[in-house]
Each structure stands twice: as C-alpha cells, then as structure tokens.
Amino acid sequence: MDDKIPENADQVVDQASERDEDDFQPRRELLARIHFAIEAEDGATLNALLDPMHAADIADIIENMDSADRRVFLRLYAGEIDGEILSEIDEGIREEVLEQLPREVLAEAVREMDSDDVVDLIEDLDESDRAEILAALDDSDRAAVQQSLAYPEYSAGRLMQSEVVTAPEHWTVGETIDFLRNEEWLPEQFYHIILVDPRRHPIGYVTLGRLLASRRDAPLRDLSEDSFRTISAYAEEGDVAYAFNQYHLISAPVVDGDDRLVGVITIDDAMSVLDEEHEEDILRLAGVGEDSAITDTVVETLRQRLPWLMVNLATAIAASLVIAVFETTIQQVVALAVLMPIVASMGGNAGTQTLTVAVRALATKSLTGSNVWRVVRREAIVGLLNGLAFALVMGVVAYIWFDGVSLAAVIGIAMVVNLGIAALAGILIPLGLEKVGADPALASGTFVTTVTDVVGFFAFLGLASAVLL
Amino acid sequence: MDDKIPENADQVVDQASERDEDDFQPRRELLARIHFAIEAEDGATLNALLDPMHAADIADIIENMDSADRRVFLRLYAGEIDGEILSEIDEGIREEVLEQLPREVLAEAVREMDSDDVVDLIEDLDESDRAEILAALDDSDRAAVQQSLAYPEYSAGRLMQSEVVTAPEHWTVGETIDFLRNEEWLPEQFYHIILVDPRRHPIGYVTLGRLLASRRDAPLRDLSEDSFRTISAYAEEGDVAYAFNQYHLISAPVVDGDDRLVGVITIDDAMSVLDEEHEEDILRLAGVGEDSAITDTVVETLRQRLPWLMVNLATAIAASLVIAVFETTIQQVVALAVLMPIVASMGGNAGTQTLTVAVRALATKSLTGSNVWRVVRREAIVGLLNGLAFALVMGVVAYIWFDGVSLAAVIGIAMVVNLGIAALAGILIPLGLEKVGADPALASGTFVTTVTDVVGFFAFLGLASAVLL
C-alpha cells in the first residue's frame, strides 16, 4: 500500500492501526533530516526531501520552524515556492515569508493562484505590498481580485473565486461538452455548470455527473438540480459555512446586489471557514485572543491574553469584596474560609458546563425561539438536582470534617442556591448576549463565573453569619 | 432575489444584511404556524408549510419540538418522511422517531438512502431494530451495509459509501462517457471516476471536469490527478477529516486490508465529522459529556454532567485541604481569606488559556516534535511576564486595601509563582496526556485547575505564614 500513497499521507494510515507515540516517528525523522539540510545549507537535499510532499505539508513545516531556520530555508528553497504552498501558509507568518521571497518568485506564485487565494493572501497586507502583488497579476485576474476586495471582510465576496464555468440556459449537453473541450481555460476544480440568463443571472446548475450521464441532445435546463441556491456576496462567511454544512452543498454561485453572478464558493473554502470559526469559538470561550496561533511570539501571546486576565482580575476582586464583608464571621469560624472556595468552584464549573452547551447550540442555530424555554426549564431543573446531590455530599463531608450540623446545613443550602443560579446564569447570559448582538462565546464565561463566585460566597458566608453566630 | 431562493435559505441572506434580533423572525413565524397546525392536527397545512423546505431544515424542526408535539407531528406527517429527512435527524432523538414511524414508511425511507447513511442510522440501534431495517433493504444494499458495519466504529469503513463509479485504467474518455450514459444506476453525487486494475485495486482517479474537457480518444490514465490518495477502511474518522481538510480532497477511495477498493468517502461526510469532532472538543474542554445535545432530557443531561462535577468536587476539596493547613494563619490575618481566591482564580484562568491553545494545537497537529520546546519556552516566559504584571497590580491593590507592605509582597510573589506554574501546567499536562494516549481535551482542565488551586493557596498562605506571623 505504501508505494501508492504519497509520503505525507502516512498519518492517516499509520494512526489508524495504533495510536501511540510512534505516530509521528516517520514525520519526526523527516523533519530532523530537513533541519540538518538547512543547517548544512544543502539546497539539493532539501529539494529531494520536499519534492514528494504536498504543498500543505510543506507549508506546515515552514510554519513550525523557528525564524532563523525559516530565513535560511526560504533562501535555499525560494525557487520552489509556488502559489499552492503560498496559499497554505498560516496568516501568522505570512508577512514574514512574503518579505523574504524574491520579488520574481512572488510574482510568479501569485499568477498561478485562484483569485480567492490571492484575496486571502493580500487582504491583510499594507497598501504598498498589496499594490506590488496586484501589479504582478494579469489585467483580468487583477480586476477579479479588486472586485472581491471591494466586498466587506469575512463576506462571501471575499471567499468566492471569480473563475466560474457557466452556460446559457438554452444549451444542450452536447453543446456544453463541446464548449468545455474547446475552452482553453478552466478552473482547477469545478463541480457544476451554472446556468445563466442573458443578463448573467444564475438560474440553476447542473452537476458534472448528471452532465456526463445524459444524452447529448438533453437540454441543460431539464438537468438542473433542486438543491440550487445562490449566496449573496454580502453574506457573512460563517453563514455561508453553515449553509454548506446544513444543505450539503458542494459549490454555490455568488451574486451581487443586482442578482448577477460574480463568483462561486466551493466546499473546501466553506470547510476552512467552519474550521476557523470553531477554532475561534474555542479560543474565545477560554478567553484567548481568537487570532492566537502556535507560531505567535511572546509579545503577540501576551497581547492576546493580558486583557482577559485583567478582566478576570477585576471580577475576582469583586468576589473578594463579598468575602471582605464577612471578615468577622470568618475570623470566628475559620472553617468557612476552608470551605468557601468549594461552593464557588462548583458553581463556576456547573455554570461553565451549561454555558458551553448554550453557546454551541446558539452557534449551530439549534437553540431557537421554539425550544428556548424548554431548554431553560431543563437547565434550571438540572441545576437544582445537581445542587441537591452536591448539597448532600458536601453536607456529609462538612459534618465529618468539622463536626457541625449547622455548618453542614449551611454549605448544603449554599450549594443548592449556587448551582441553581449557575444553571440559570449559564443559559440566560449567553441568550442575553446574543439578543443584544454580542458574541456569546466571547463574554459569557467571565459573566457566568462572576455571578457564581459572588453568589457562592454571598450565599455561603451570609447564611453562615446568620445561622452560626 | 427572494423569489429565486428556497424559503429556508433565508438565514444566509438575511443575516448578512443585519445581525439583529429580527434574524429569526421569518423562521419564528413559520415555526409558530407549524406549531398551530400540529395543535389543530391539520395535516394538509403542515404539508403545505413543509413542502418547500429542505430535508435538513425539516429535521431541525422535528428536533426542536417537545416530545408531545413530535408524536402528533410524526402521525400527521409520517407519509412524507423520506430517507433524506431521516438521515438528517440528530442521534439524540433518532430512536424515538424510528419507533414512531410506521414500518412501511421506514422501510421505504431506508431503501432510498445511500449505504453510508443507512450505516449511520442503524449503527447505534439494538440488534432487533437493526435486523428489521436490514431486512427492508435489497440484497446488494444489505451486503454493502453489513460490510461497512464490519469495520470498527468511527472508522473510515463506517463513513464510506459503497456506491462507487469506477473504470478500467485502459479506458478512454469516450468509452467512459458511453458507459455513464448507459449505466442505469449512478450515485446521487460523485466527483471522480476511480481507475481500477483488474483486481479492483484503485490506481488513480480522474475528476469529472477533466473528463468533460478532454477529447473522446484521450486515455483515462493520462488524466489521472496528482492529488490521488487512498484511505484505509480502518483509518479513524478524525484522521480522515484531517486529511480532507489538509489536502483539500473532494472524495477519496477507501481500500480494505488487501488494498482493494471497498467504497468512497466524500467531502460532505468529512465536513460533518470535522464539525462533530470540534463540537466534542469544546464540550470535553468544558467537562460536559461529548454526546450532549440540546434535545437531551433532564436525566441524560444529569448523567453527562454529574461525573465531571464530582471530579471537580474532589479537586476542590483537595485545594481546601491546603487551606485547612493554614487555618491558624487565616484566623490571625483574615485578609488572607479575602485575597486567596484571587491568586487561585488568576492561576486557573491563565492555565486554562494556555491549555486551550495547547489542546487545539495538538488536535490540529500543529504542535509537533519540531516546535514543542519552543512553545513550552514561550509559554513559560509569557507565564512569568503575566505573573510579574499581575504581581505589580495586585501588590498595589493589596497595599491600598489592607495597608500592608508585607501582605502586598506576599501576594505579588504568590502571583508570579502561580502564573508561572499555571503556564507550565497548561502546556505540559496536555502534552503528557497526549503522550500516554489520553485525550488532552477531556482531562487537562481538571488537572490544570487542581494544580493552580493547590499551588495558588499553598504559595500564598505558606508565604504569608512565614512572612506575616
């Protein structure tokens, strides 16, 4: 089997058989050899090692080097860097790579790229770098890229490629095949023939499979798919990805404000967006800057993480102010200081569980008007039952530990209150943020843990000072 | 534009223009009308409302009903439930729906489905339900489904469809097109013609676009794509999704242990897997059962969340034991009880930031042997710098609040120690779990916060009792 599979497919095949530390072994050996070739400034060996590899894997290797190695690497390997590799390179180090590439290599590489990849490459560059790359393109490609850049960031217009295969609606299968055979230029990958009317409004599409399986005299119009739908160039890329996933689209025509065909989005682009959006959601939930990457420097990392830690500090101080109110109580019953973090921690965790489920359900549009109250009710019941369960457990633990029935009762009641509130905060805060147009993934966590800390400390210490003193 | 777009595509188009609370308005109205039709047991209206909708949207609506509505709905609408709707229905309520469908509807629906969708539908059913559905299939479909079920759960073999379009390697374009035109049965969607040798070993593939653009006498062999790679039927589905995403595959042939073609996986299946894996990662990071869904009942929800809260309770008690050691210290300087949660909370948050980035990097295979020490070093430096920054801030806050220089010094030092440890725990614990074959997303959070709680309390209270008493 190995002789048929390109070298870099090894992880799919290897990891299937057994998932252990040897997984990366072949990879690691290869990486070591690449590293040695760079150290020795041995371009020939480098070429030989990378030649069988997929552009995406070469890009990964470039990303994982340190900057010093990368500099040498780019010098040795520049001639081989093509559009495919370039479009795979992570945003984090893209500017660094572009700067170090000889101008003619860069110009050659961008000329090979599809318009959507060029847009992706240059949209974050500064004006002069952008102009330089645009200048390297053919007139028609440049026009396509500029048209795309005219749409808002993160819109379907930025995501689409302008290379589209269309046919007039009145053509037959035979005419279409003859046209395709004679056409000099066709996109690398395409999955549909888009039917357009004379004013370039898309009115249907035919899958290539359907085209191939039909008789030459069949009219295209009769082969058009039910699944046909157009996407506005102004649609948000996240919504585009959702539509592809929800409706199992493979490609979809993009139209401008006048409903004219301006490009096409293919599923691999939608898949990348889905991947990025998920990534961002996870990072946001953890209070990490959404652009953070493993290639970031210390300064970039600090810039992403400090603000959220600062917010957390503020909320932690707020919770401490609650504790400060009960200083005398704690001084008299020091067991309270020992037990109070347990109440807060349980609330924080229960709240995080609920909010994560809620944030995901909102992101996947499965929490809607029709089921929201049912879900809120479920969370409230679950919160109370969790609270009762852990009230019992902690009551027993506190009784055994500190030999006090009242203390056990106090922590039990505080646990019920805090886990109940945690559940409500966990569902209502994301819903509220969504309602006011904020991103629930970004801010919910801080709000929810603030609520559970404050309520946890207040319920526990407040009850204690009422009951125990 | 609206007249051309199916009703259910509204979210892509609407949400693009403005993201506000009106987004779901058209949807909500429709849902209300569906609800009324169910209440009134008005099957005709229900049919009329759902007729223009995509199967995926109908499935969503079924998922979002409460069980009572769903029961009535299924009675009224059973005749319209087809294979497409059935394959879109979420696992969480699938069994409930299957049970309520008339047997002949179910049999008819599964006969329409692709083999991979049937496998997905029945793999979690019990033996007798499974047998019933298998019995409804044609012999050849049943054989395909059983072959698929023979592969391990979550393997490529389960994910593939057995419907494959192949051609002998020696065929020309013309022969292939003639074959396709005469073939009675072709899959709904296919993107490649897979070239096989006489023993059914796949040796290349030709995209349909390439086929359409080539002359009739061109040999298929000359049109085969470089990107060709096979996937082992035993490969894990997560690795398959990774390969599709990494190498921009559209479809890939699946081979058995003898390298013979047994099926094909298409990108939409890979996209669903990617989506599910992300979902699971997010839920695992939050300590929520990975199978949790918004349709779960109270009991299912409790079953998923209680175990993790139990683990959290154990670690919270462990942290409290550390506090208990310093009871006398706290009694003498009660300000310590007020400030100690701040140290622990900052450590927990900083640790969670680091671990989330690490877990994601491991999941996307971007944290590898070649950059691991660089990343660990970066995290350690970031942790120390964060620690110094917040030591300064909290030192000043503590000094102003409690008017004590020593107390300010103690909390500052504790902050540096805890944020430094948090960073190391945040990166080393996921790496360690990955090394021993555990899922870093599942367990890292608990370990990391335990470390930061224990270290935070110990550093702060230990230093305090040494310095302040």
TrEMBL record, chains A, B:
Keyword Kinase among UniProt keywords: no
Membrane topology: Multi-pass membrane protein
Any GO MF annotation of the entry: magnesium ion transmembrane transporter activity
Region Disordered, annotated ranges: 1-24
Protein location: Cell membrane; Membrane
Primary residence: membrane
Gene3D superfamilies attached to this UniProt entry: CBS-domain (3.10.580.10), MgtE N-terminal domain-like (1.25.60.10), SLC41 divalent cation transporters, integral membrane domain (1.10.357.20)
Gene Ontology CC terms, in alphabetical order: plasma membrane
Pfam families, per database record: CBS, MgtE, MgtE_N
Keyword annotations from UniProtKB, A to Z: CBS domain, Cell membrane, Magnesium, Membrane, Metal-binding, Transmembrane, Transmembrane helix, Transport
Annotated CBS domain residues: 160-222, 223-280
Transmembrane segments: 306-326, 332-359, 380-402, 408-429, 441-468
UniProt cross-references to NCBIfam families, sorted A to Z: mgtE (TIGR00400)
Family label: Belongs to the SLC41A transporter family.
Function of the molecule: Acts as a magnesium transporter.
Quaternary structure annotation from Swiss-Prot or TrEMBL: Homodimer.
PANTHER family in the cross-refs: MAGNESIUM TRANSPORTER MGTE
Protein name: Magnesium transporter MgtE
